[in-house]
Amino acid sequence: MSFNAVTSSFKVARRRKSPLAETLQIGALAGLAAIGFALIGAYVAMDKRHVVEDTLTLSQIAYALMAIAAGFVAGRDTQGRPSGSRIVLHGALTGLVAGLCVSALMLLMASVSLRSTLVAASPMLTKALSLGAPIGSLQALAQVPILGALLGMIGGVFAAMPSRYRRALTCGFAIVLIAGLFRDVFVSVLDNVPDFNGPEAEVFGSGGLNRVPALVLLVAGGIFALLRDRWNAGHNPARRARSSKAGLVLLLVGVLILPLVTNDFVAQVAMLVALYMLMGMGLNIELGLAGLVDLGFVAFFAVGAYTVALMCSSGPLALVDVSFWVALPVAVVLAAGAGMLFGLPVLRVRGDYLAMATLGLGEIIRVLVLSDALAPYLGGSQGIIEIDHPRIFGVSLQSPAALYYLALALAGVVAFISWRLQHARIGRAWLAMREDEDVAQALGIDPVASKLLAYTIGAAFAGAAGAVFAALVGSVYPHSFQLLVSINVLAILVIGGLGSLPGVLVGAIVLIGLPELLREFGEFRYLFYGIALVAMMHMRAEGLWPATTRTKENARA
Amino acid sequence: MLDALPKNLLPKSPARAPLLEVRGLKKAFGGMIAIQNVDLSIAEGSVHAIIGPNGAGKTTAFNCITAFVPPTAGTIFLGGARIDGLPAHVVARHGVARTYQNVRLFPNMTALENVLVGQHRRLHTTFWEAIIGSGRFRREEAEARERAREYLAFVGIAQRAGDLARNMPYGDQRRLEIARALVAGPRILMLDEPAAGMNPAEGRALVELIERIRAELGVTVVLIEHHMRVVMAVAERITVFNRGAVLTEGPPAEIQSDERVIEAYLGRRSGHVATPVVESEPHRPMEARIA
Amino acid sequence: MSEWLRRSTWVDHVLLAIRISVAALVLVGLAGGLTAGTYSAADFVSFTMFGLTIGSVYALIALGYTMVYGILRMINFAHGDVMMIGSFAGLFAAGALNDVGLLSALPLLALPLVLCAGMAGGAAMSLIIERIAYRPFLHVRSLAPLICAIGMSFVLQYAARGLFGTRNRAYPGFGWMEGTVSLFGLIVPIPQIVAFVAALIVLAGLLALVKLSPLGKAMRAVAEDRDAAALVGINVGAVIVATFAIGGAMAGVAGVLYALVFKQITVFMGFALGIKGFAAAILGGIGNLGGALLGGLVLGLAEALGPALILEGFGLPAPYQLKDVIGYGMLVMILIFRPQGLLGERLASKRA
Lengths: 557, 291, 352
Fold this sequence. Notes:
The complex is a heterotrimer.
Chain A: H1 2-13, H2 19-39, H3 42-47, E1 50-52, E2 56-57, H4 58-78, H5 84-111, H6 123-129, H7 138-160, H8 163-181, H9 183-192, H10 199-203, H11 211-233, H12 237-261, H13 264-289, H14 297-312, H15 324-347, H16 351-370, H17 375-378, E3 391-392, E4 395-396, H18 400-422, H19 425-435, H20 437-442, H21 447-473, H22 483-496, H23 501-517, H24 525-539, H25 549-556
Antiparallel strand pairs in A: 1-2, 3-4
Helix pairs in contact in A: 2-4, 2-5, 4-5, 4-7, 5-7, 8-11, 12-13, 13-18, 13-21, 13-22, 13-23, 14-15, 14-16, 14-21, 15-21, 18-21, 19-21, 22-23, 22-24
Chain B: E1 18-29, E2 32-43, E3 47-51, H1 58-65, E4 73-78, E5 81-82, H2 88-93, E6 96-98, H3 111-118, H4 127-132, H5 135-155, H6 170-182, E7 188-192, H7 200-217, E8 220-224, H8 228-234, E9 237-242, E10 245-250, H9 252-256, H10 259-266
Parallel strand pairs in B: 3-8, 3-9, 6-7, 7-8
Antiparallel strand pairs in B: 1-2, 1-4, 4-5, 9-10
Chain C: H1 2-7, H2 10-36, H3 41-72, H4 79-99, H5 102-105, H6 107-134, H7 144-164, E1 169-170, E2 180-183, E3 186-189, H8 190-212, H9 214-224, H10 226-231, H11 236-262, E4 264-265, H12 269-284, H13 289-311, H14 323-337
Antiparallel strand pairs in C: 1-4, 2-3
């Protein structure tokens, strides 16, 4: 896409510095990243999570990755020069510089108290960064740069080695990391397998992987990657495409059976993922197809949730007490109506006003719901509780797994509707409007009407998600409807790929599922989202699972 | 020099009812008056060219007629219905279609999809029918695709249906733009410099295409064009713009010999202005424009 | 009338209906509020004073939006967070000055120093945002800058949260500037007067810069037509950078003045103030510097007087909880009633 053209032209325009200066600069950048990571409190928080029992914590891995990445970049940039030792040297130098930055921070913290300004600069941080050595000792200060240089050197080696081995190492490492991080999920799966009580205690410790299994997994992963490479090399691309289709099927099967084979906590997380998928599909119509940046999405989510709450609760605030299946369409219609009413004035004006105006809308709804003025009807900050669970054929859907399937089924329906609309007259009109609004209008497309339709459908889907949310949780509170919900959905779409339905699935798993499972991560979730949004726009604007269906379809046509 | 042009091949019948009637059109951007007192009358079924030096206000007049920009004053009637002041999509629904001076396709959509978007107002299935996938919806989609292919074939780029618009050669992009405009079934087609950047062979093909648009589809054509060879070959009437106003109007033969037109193009002291290149050597692109 | 009927589409008809109903609602509220008599005339005067103060802060924020919009035709989504960073930079400067005792002894000397710190913080942050979110996408028409800026906004908020903590931070006292003064029989807090005057001085300085300096001339040229400006030898990239820096500095001033009046700041304050600054910018007519001032003051007054005048009229309990609804509601109202703003967009829409 044109994004790449622009960034690469920038690189060309940049004056080449000497390789040494560039290496030092990369090292300093990595050092700054490491200092930032420590000072926002991420280091201490993630130090509690052991990936490999008693050996490696998550924050140590993060630091190691920073050094390796810096060494890799420095090594790659000096490539093209003859000597391999030079690459390794540059890698080591970046790691050393980065490590020195961290040591400087430790020295600073030891000599002055930064705590009144920077809350995370605590003795706990100094202790964690000292890696067990006496605090403030020469050993504590010296070991970080040395380790950094070693890791940077590894990064350099990484840059110099053939890509086949690089892939193998990456694969092995990724498998160890995933196994260590998601220990709880794997243990719960193994727990569910009957007559299988032994191995999990051997493989997993109380927090992460044990040492020997970690090593085994690393080697196994590497061998697997090598074998796969060889297999791929011997086959034509069509066969490879089929194997990636198999990957999608595998993913879907995993999604379908996941809650059955794990515990309730994982099922609950899966439920949340499904709910966000539902919302993602809604925003996909607005943002992915029609190009409308809507940050007030949460407002319609709230309309749906409060509608169900008022219609299905057995509490004192309920207006009526009807079945969820009656309330759901009402919620959808009300949310769509709200979308239409608000959309009309806003959609007439410039596109990027929309982001701000809808932001305002989301806040208006939240403040109104919280206010004393509406408290007699909506419960104020107390919310509405005792919402009945939905029933199917007299069976109440109460378990997280059952509710997960409900949310998933609705997401499926919504995905089907979006897919159909995308390939009809109105979907083409949306795409055309996104490409060139003036020309689309000159072809007879009413811009306000088609935007309004996209906005209304998006609002209706958000309303459906809200309705399911109320039924899932059993209660609604104003604090559930913050702007962050809208940002979550936006990030899902951008990360997954704008306009891509499988992208919504991938985005929801990555952005909603993972942070829920990695509790240490929770606090830094939005920081990570922000970085991911920026990085995605710079490096891979089309998303993790880009929308390619259109071109494929027409190649066939 | 101008009378060395090939003779116009078309039968002329100037006494037809006007399809497009523009009266007293004026457009000002801030203090700068782009056009004023423009009167135009385009006969139904005719091919009408608008010529004039750069900056004479030709494209501004087009933009006002297609409601791309709102006119400051004046009235515009299409087939007796008043269309000035209406939003662009409503004007389009009255049967006005256009192309752009610098091609404006939907770059990330295929040629076929571009033409499908052009059919927007010919299709009638509702939102609900699209969701449930009713028989009517399927029929209409199939017809729309069929029609899209017909129009791509009509302009001669049938083999490019699956290509992304941005990957197509320039000449094909121009043809695609015409197909996209035509497929809507307009009463009047407004072409803004359709021959720009074309070589003589492509120019001749364009002349032939415009002939077919008029003859086979019965669509009235208005074109802005700098290439005198194209203009003289297709136009029944020519309106000359100069400095934001209509200088003169008449059949090609009259325009060719009009002193004022030659003066507007060449200026009084013609020494420093490029002379019009009309009969150029075969390989020379027709880009070389008059003044 | 018949002309309107000929030109209008269903959109115009529905909008007219919305306009009439909103106007009716406001009028009913106004009538109720004026006759309720809950507040005395003196109350209204002090509300007005407060509205002007907060309005001048909004105006300073609005300037950043309006200037960037004027030049790039884009909205800097992270501008509210730039203000937050400026405010924190001011906080640390004030803390340092307080430690040496300058703050309470010579507030008139200390305040400009703190303002400078805020300006520097805001300008630096604004430059980083320009570098990351806008410069790489300068020649691409896409959603990328907007989404990048949304990302940056979150990076700033949550990095600041990690660095500075979630609790409110109190600004140290500015000596005699903390008190109140009696003006025409009304008791007015001094910080309000100081903030208002300081905002006006900074605004006047900015207007002079834009009208008189060569940089201002270049900025106006780039706003008019970027390509033409480049052709006559203006360094467009440098002008864009300068615009972001000045906008960020104005936001930094706003952050410090806000803290002067409200005494406390948090890392999340940029969000609400950012939206209101934006509302002020489009209320005045985006791209129009004078409009930003007007829009800020009108918005501040609406927010200060609205609950008492309009919401009270509906007999709502605790109308001041809904102050923000008025603020955000104004944004929607502008879009309903007059999207081009009070003074209109500076440049006529130019297409083709």
